[in-house]
UniProtKB/TrEMBL annotation:
<dbReference type="InterPro" id="IPR001680">
    <property type="entry name" value="WD40_rpt"/>
</dbReference>
<dbReference type="InterPro" id="IPR015943">
    <property type="entry name" value="WD40/YVTN_repeat-like_dom_sf"/>
</dbReference>
<dbReference type="InterPro" id="IPR036322">
    <property type="entry name" value="WD40_repeat_dom_sf"/>
</dbReference>
<protein>
    <submittedName>
        <fullName>Unnamed protein product</fullName>
    </submittedName>
</protein>
<feature type="compositionally biased region" description="Polar residues">
    <location>
        <begin position="1"/>
        <end position="18"/>
    </location>
</feature>
<feature type="region of interest" description="Disordered">
    <location>
        <begin position="1"/>
        <end position="44"/>
    </location>
</feature>
<feature type="compositionally biased region" description="Polar residues">
    <location>
        <begin position="29"/>
        <end position="40"/>
    </location>
</feature>
<dbReference type="InterPro" id="IPR051150">
    <property type="entry name" value="SWT21/TCAB1_mRNA_Telomere"/>
</dbReference>
<dbReference type="Pfam" id="PF00400">
    <property type="entry name" value="WD40"/>
</dbReference>
Length: 393
């Protein structure tokens, strides 16, 4: 289905960091009921050399957290409560816009808070019980190259705590390439993934104590080749815990391997498998895993890669069994282009939504119902640029 055939479902741009007439043309017809509203997430200082590398919604759906090429993390508060206006900012001129207010054109957005860094940020993770109504919960983690892991607030550019991850022999900082702050651990612990290593941290133990658990994904550093011995070698570039509560952690690497671990990543290995040299790899390509998503039922694992034109689907009930793949994603880039899951029919089914480098958004319905390759069922044009970043509220 082409973009022109779904004009009636086109999203409404309710907010943008573009200014003036540039934002005015982004307001579309207001008759869409099915599609979530979207915000154009380009930083205020964006240019050819400063672009948004990642963007995340906070769990309460009020705030966006962006990481940009200029090494700055910015927060944009989109939905605001009176308690925040009175307790955090006495100056009304700094009040963030409320997207529920009707306007003839998109709201102009400016960062509420900016956290600078001297080095690139590799990964971020938001506190799972984040609520703008309780400023003590507005926390996020970030890993910066050659620095300790940082804990900060989205409301103020001030570090609240740091957590050291140091190589035991070289004493150099290990920078995680992936961090998750899962509900399953009650907000008291977070998990990091780095080179052939998964670590568990206790939030209440900042400083130089390091993680409470170290789990190498290969039994020995002497096993230098991929597949040399039990386990997997490579940078842990993506992680996800099964949403059904069985405590299985899926971890993926830039070397195109996936490992499954019990006890929320602190237990034994349940198995590893490679996604290279498969029918899916030959059809859609891929140069390293950048995102893992569990299906709502917890039976299937979606795998997104850089330099890939689609998303792989694996049946985890049989470790390493390829079910199928989604085609036509248009994501042949080294950027981490995300996908998202949307529940439909009161949670009995779901869809995969993804953006492409051509500025289109695409949707695959009931992707686990068909084996082999699947083309998107519908798509629409968002804008003329690359739609690198994606997240649904």
């Amino acid at each position: 289905m082409t973009a022109s055939s779904v004009t009636s479902s086109a999203p409404i741009c309710v907010a943008s960091t573009q200014r003036g007439d540039e934002a005015g043309d982004a307001s579309l017809d207001s008759h869409s009921q099915r599609t979530p509203s979207t915000a154009c997430c380009t930083d205020e200082s964006a240019s050819d050399t400063n672009y948004v590398k990642s963007v995340e919604w906070t769990p309460d759906g009020t705030t966006l957290l962006t990481n940009s090429a200029d090494h700055h993390i910015r927060t944009y508060i989109l939905l605001v409560y009176v308690i925040i206006l009175t307790s955090c900012r006495a100056n009304n001129s700094l009040r963030p816009p409320d997207l529920l207010e009707e306007r003839p054109s998109p709201h102009p957005l400016s960062p509420y808070s900016v956290l600078p860094s001297a080095e690139p940020t590799y990964a971020t993770a938001i506190y799972p019980y984040y609520s703008l109504q309780d400023p003590s919960t507005t926390l996020f983690l970030s890993s910066v190259r050659d620095h300790p892991i940082r804990l900060a607030s989205t409301l103020s550019p001030t570090l609240l705590a740091t957590y050291s991850l140091v190589h035991p022999t070289t004493e150099a900082f290990i920078t995680p390439h992936s961090i998750i702050y899962p509900h399953a651990l009650g907000g008291t612990h977070f998990i990091t993934g780095s080179d052939s290593l998964i670590c568990l941290f206790d939030v209440s133990r900042p400083g130089n104590d390091g993680p409470v658990s170290w789990m190498p994904t290969i039994p020995s550093k002497r096993k230098q080749t991929v597949g040399g011995g039990v386990g997997m070698k490579g940078i842990i570039s993506a992680m996800a815990i099964n949403s059904t509560g069985d405590g299985i952690l899926a971890a993926g690497t830039f070397s195109r391997q996936v490992g499954l671990y019990d006890s929320n990543g602190t237990g034994q290995s349940l198995g590893t498998f490679s996604i290279a040299k498969t029918d899916a790899s030959r059809r859609i390509g891929g140069r390293g895993i950048t995102q893992l998503l569990w299906s709502p039922c917890g039976r299937y694992l979606y795998i997104a890669e850089r330099k890939s034109d689609g998303v792989m689907i694996y049946d985890i009930r049989v470790t390493g069994q390829l079910l199928g793949w989604l085609e036509g994603r248009k994501a042949i880039t080294n950027q981490r282009m995300k996908v998202d899951i949307v529940s439909t029919n009161q949670g009995t089914s779901h869809e995969i939504w993804a953006g492409g480098t051509d500025g289109f958004m695409r949707v695959w319905r009931d992707p686990t119902h068909t084996a082999g390759g699947q083309e998107p069922e519908w798509e629409w044009k968002i804008h003329d640029g690359t739609y690198y970043l994606f997240g649904l509220l």
